[in-house]
Design brief:
alpha/beta, single chain, 6 strands, about 15% strand
């Protein structure tokens, strides 16, 4: 992570295809105090859990990147409700949050909604444990929300989509990709 260390003025960092470890996270945290936007691929099919970034690595980023407004977490299979409760308060400045392919339930979503009231963009795609309750919390807890991505959340019901329709009157832009399996290649860059 010599690039990160050498670029202390870096504001945007996308490591989407780079498999991040805790060492990567600590390098980012110690060198990128001005970082505003961060994208991390937390998966890695052939890596053991100990070789990937963990909640302690993400906590180091939260502690070191005080101005972070945008965080994209992809394939964070370890990110469950307990980790969300621990991490969410550290990311209170977020305006854009993407947590795709995590193992969050309504409890984890509630933590981020409660701790990040200034969210304007939220993506919770392919989180198998999110229900209509999350949408109710988002509706009441994110008054500035402009875009919401919810594709591939199989536990959302028709009642959820009725609730989403009422949100469109409050949102500045349309709610995008809310219907199950509405994902397309153009959704890769949804922020």
């Amino acid at each position: 992570m010599a690039v990160v260390s050498a670029c202390s003025m870096l504001r945007d960092l996308n490591l989407g295809s780079f498999v991040c470890t805790d060492a990567t996270a600590k390098a980012i945290a110690s060198s990128s105090v001005r970082l505003v936007s961060l994208t991390l691929n937390l998966g890695g099919l052939k890596l053991r859990r100990s070789q990937r970034i963990s909640e302690s690595g993400l906590a180091a980023i939260a502690a070191g990147c005080l101005w972070l407004e945008e965080l994209r977490l992809h394939q964070a299979s370890w990110l469950r409700d307990g980790e969300a409760a621990m991490l969410a308060p550290s990311f209170s400045r977020l305006k854009r949050l993407s947590m795709d392919e995590c193992h969050l339930s309504d409890v984890g979503v509630e933590e981020f909604v409660r701790c990040c009231p200034d969210l304007i963009h939220l993506a919770l795609m392919n989180n198998d444990f999110i229900t209509d309750r999350s949408i109710q919390m988002i509706r009441s807890g994110c008054p500035r929300l402009e875009s919401l991505f919810l594709s591939f959340n199989d536990r959302l019901t028709d009642a959820c989509y009725t609730l989403l329709a009422t949100m469109q009157f409050r949102c500045k832009t349309q709610i995008v990709s809310a219907w199950p399996h509405a994902y397309s290649e153009s959704d890769d860059e949804y922020f």
